[in-house]
Amino acid sequence: MTAYFDCFSGIAGDMTVAALLDAGVNWDSFFAELGRMRLPGHEMSVRQTRRCGITASKFMVFAPEEHHHRHLKDIEEIIREAGYPNTVTDNALKVFRTLAEAEANVHGSTIEEVHFHEVGAVDSIVDIVGACIALEMLGITEIHASPLPTGRGFVKTQHGLMPVPAPATAELLKGIPIVPCDVEGELVTPTGAAILKALAAGFGSQPAMTVERIGYGAGTKDLGERPNLLRVLVGRSDTGKGWISERLLVVETNIDDMNPQVYDYVMDRLFRAGALDVWMTPAQMKKNRPGTTLGVLCRIPDRSAMLEILALETTTLGVRVSEVERVSLQREETTVDTPYGSLSAKRAILPDGTAKVRPEYDSMKRMAEEKPGFHPRDPEQRP
Q1: How confident is the model at residue 242 (pLDDT cuts 50, 70, 90)?
Q2: What is the DSSP letter of 334?
Q3: CA-angle at 168, arms to 160 and 13, nearest 5°
C-alpha cells in the first residue's frame, strides 16, 4: 500500500497519528500496541472534531511534566524493549536517529551526546512510535509527501524564542521542497519533519495510485480560513501489478578536466552518502575535448549531500538536477542453494505473479574463489 501525505497546512507528530487513525486503523488495537512501551504514566485519547467543516480525528497525549532529558540510547532502549515487529522498530529507530543527527548538527555535538528536549518527551515518543504502528496496521510500505509549508514568525522552545522553522526543523528540511506560506506560527514541527525525512520515498505531486482510504488529522491551532489538517491518501500504486513507483532525483554534470583516477573515489563517496546508482558516460565536449557525464540517482532528501560531494570532490562548476519517476519490481533479499553452498540473491516478483531470482555477483565471485570447480556460467550450477 502507498500513502500520500498532503501537507497543505504542514505536519506534526500528533496530526500524523490522527490522520492514519482516521484512515481506518482500529483504535483499540492501536492503543493496545502503544501500551507495550515502558513509559511514565500517561493517557491517550482520540476523538472526532471538525476543521472548516471537514470531519477529522484529533489525537492527544496527556503526560506528567518531566524534569530530565533523554539521550538517543534511552529512547532506543524503550522502543526495543517493547518487542514490536521489525518494521515498526526499524522505522521508529530511523526517525529518532534522523532527529538526533539534526540536533547534533545544530548544537555542534554527536548523536550519542544529544539531549532530547521536546522531542524526547513522552508525547513525542508516543507520536513517533504511534505513527510507525499505524503505518504497519494499514499495510503501508511506501510513503510520498507534498512540499511543506513552514509558516513564519517565531516559536517558543526550551531554548527561548526561535525563528520558524526552528533550527532543528530547518536542518531536517534540507533537501525537502518547501513552499511559501503567510501563516504566523509553526506549521512543521521537528517530529513531523523527522517522520517524513526518515520514511518518505519522495516529495512532490501525488503519485499514480488508486485511492482506497482518506484520513484527516487535526492540529490544535486555529488557522482561520485555512483548515489546520493533514490529509493522508492511502491506496495502491497504478504502475501495474508487481511494480513500485517512486519519485527520485537525477543529478548530472559534464566534466572534461579531471584526472580519471579520481572517479573511483567520488563514486565511493556518493554511494556511502546514499546514492542509489552512479554512472559515467563518455561525452564529446566543447573545444573538441573528450569528457565524461557523471550521473547520480538519489532520493530527494539526499540532494544536498550529493551536491556537496560533487562540488568538493570534482572539478565541476555546476550540475543539472531533474526529478524522475523510477518504476521497479518488488524485490527482497534471499538465498539460493547450489551443490557448492548457498548464494546471496535478490528475488523479484514479476507482473504475472511469478518470481525470478538473480544471485549476487559478489557472492558468486567469493564462491568461485573458495570452491574449485564452481563457475556461474555453468547451467547446471545456476539456481
Answers
A1: low
A2: E
A3: 95
The C-alpha atoms of residue 163 and residue 173 are separated, in whole angstroms, by: 14
pTM of the model: 0.66
User: What is the tens place of the pLDDT at every residue in 323-371?
Assistant: 888 888 877 788 888 888 888 888 887 877 788 888 888 888 888 888 8
Does the 244-329 domain belong in CATH 3.30.70.1380? yes
Write 331-338 long-range contacts (CB < 8 A, 24+): 336/383, 337/383, 338/367, 338/374, 338/381, 338/383
CB atoms within 10 A of CB 40: 8
Looking at residue 184, the DSSP 8-state letter turns out to be B
Half-sphere exposure of 299 (CA within 13 A, CB side): 20
- Amino acid identity at 207: P
How high does pLDDT run on average in the chain? 87
- Side chain identity at residue 57, one-letter code: S
Q: Is 224 left (phi over 0), alpha (psi -120 to 50) or beta?
A: left
Once rounded to an integer, what is the mean pLDDT over residues 4-27? 96
Domain ranges of the chain: 2-238, 244-329, 331-381
Distance in angstroms (rounded) separating the CA atoms of residues 282 and 113: 46
- Closest Cα to residue 177, out of 161, 154, 197? 197
